[in-house]
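=== Discrete structure encoding ===
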Amino acid sequence: MTAPVCTSASVAAAPARQTPAYPSFASYVRARQPVLLRTARSLTANPSDAEDLLQTALAKTYVAWERIEDQRALDGYVRRALLNTRTSQWRKRRVDEFACEELPEPEAVPGDDDPAERQALHDAMWRAVLKLPARQRAMVVLRYYEDLSEAQTAEVLGVSVGTVKSAVSRALGKLREDPELVLAR
């Protein structure tokens, strides 16, 4: 067996070792993980969420590892990543639903329980609509009784959407001031 004469040839002939892309990142995580996990736990209520938060922050740090020039600022960088990640999670949080034994009853609306009062209100509303000019009445009926969109109402009547908006707005203003409907409020 002969010894290699050229050292660069022996390095090239040696099998390539599997080394992590950032060996200093791995050593940093091993050394600082307990401290960083305490910081993550202070930001969340659940220890499992804290571990997930730390993993996400460390993944962000790994991506930016080459750009971090001052190695003394690593803890600050990771803490900032923890805080930013937690803030993003907080903003996206879901609304928790809680089961209860009894469903809360909706507030009673005056006149809602009496069919005669409902019919009287319906009749008063229809009389007020009939007082509107024909064009406004047509737009209100299509928008609110037939439940068409503004665009659909405009298409049916052959006018622009802006015309529908302004005419319906004026019609609703007249209905708000109708003396028969004031008593219903």
